[in-house]
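Predict structure. Chain length: 180.
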Amino acid sequence: ISGALTGLGRHREATTVILHEVENLTRLLGENHNTTLTYISHLGAAHLCADETTIARYWLGRASDGREIALGAEHPWTIISQSQYAIALLRDGDTDSAALMFNSLKSRLPHIEESLARSWAMRALGEWSLRQSRYEDATSYYRSAYAIASLPDMRFRASLYAVETGLALSLSRAKSDTEA
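Prediction complete.
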């Protein structure tokens, strides 16, 4: 149900359903079970899509920390959670903490081999670069993320729209800078 609500853009309604799922999974499996952490991540992402950045930051921080403990810092799902958390920090206005996360992702980027994790890291770095008015960097990151996210066998294409939007915005801003 939560996936359908999110797909329809009804993110606030989805958060209620996902929160109930998180509570049940926490009771059944524990807070640091990978399935529970996946739903915690989904909950944070739904809040982020609903522009509830402070709440998103809380849940995505829990997912990021939990996955780092349970799976290790270099696991693809941890990298995805860290990318989402960095975006939440940035959108919530904590640029200092966000900078630390983005610098960590950037330094690890050459070693991220798993496609979905690499795409998420590129998307996050694109958003960071865009906010820093580094439009050429943003365009490069978003193009790389798009190339991965649009592959026919790519799973979890939900981020493709956000990548396309970021790419269009970075290209538009780069063009207006050169015309000014």
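Summary: Residues 160-179 form the longest helix (20 residues).
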